[in-house]
Amino acid sequence: MRIIVVTFLTLMICGFQLHAQSSKMMFGDTSRLHRPYSKDPHVIKFNNRYLMYYSVPGYTDNNGKAIGWGIAVAESNNLNDWKRIGDIKPDPAATYESKGFAAPCALVRRDTVHLFYQTYGNGKNDAICHAWSTDGINFTRNKTNPIFNPDGNWNCGRAIDAEVILFKNQYFLFFATRDPDYKIQLQGVATAPAQTSFNKHDWTHISKDAPILKPEFPWEGECVEGASVIKRNGKLYMFYAGAYNNWPQQIGAAVSEDGVHWTKLSEQPFLANGRPGEWNSSESGHPHIFDDGKKSYLFYQGNNDKGKTWLISNHEVLWSKKGPALKGN
Fold this sequence. Notes:
This protein is mostly beta strands. The chain has a single domain (9-326), classed as Tachylectin-2, Chain A (5 Propeller). It contains no helices and 23 strands. The protein is globular, with a radius of gyration of 18 Å.
């Protein structure tokens, strides 16, 4: 195994945990490529522990190139120290995910974890899928998978980066897609009734006529993706990734009263990439906003080598009448 030496480094079984002087959380799964490589974090609290779902490469070919994607799980009791505890195994009968799956979103409803994820490697045919679990690790696939891909003339029919939240007595499914020319990444939304089983026929695409969010500012480049949404004071706040990976990708924020019409909070990133030499100088991207009932944390991915490695970190978010702000800023 190749060992990467970093200041204040501690290695865990199949994982990489970095503690800087500020005790900043850093996590990288080393199980697939023997170097830290984990993306697309999503955190829940389930059965008195925190679980983090994230994307990992599927396997490597003879040249060391990563082929496909999968989803792994880590656990923590403090949101800072994480231990990898397993993978979500591919379902041999699920041909739709045979090329891989990624970008998890987990939702706890009563005693069950509902996982929403995207298929991988199918271009315009990639779609959102659903599975459920009573232990948070072993998942049963929804028989109606894939459960969602969008219609409408403004998009190419693809759906990735699912985010699902209950708001105003219905579930909102936010997703990223591309324009018909497969160039510009955009955001859309679908809804399902509060009592849904998350089956395919339950979802109604309500952004048929136009995207709910699109790149507008120079730092957003040609992409808005990876939406993560939280309910606060009767409104929804969205944290999203602007620009494609390593352009650099940075994180923006927006607000909505109905889940469909969104106003960006600033023309500048909410969380920017790091300065040259810092761990996230290549990007700070793909956010997940998590509230543990006491504090809010923005989880995100980053690296400083244009994607040769990927680490996951978090930053505490404070709230006021004006909306969210990063602690310490």
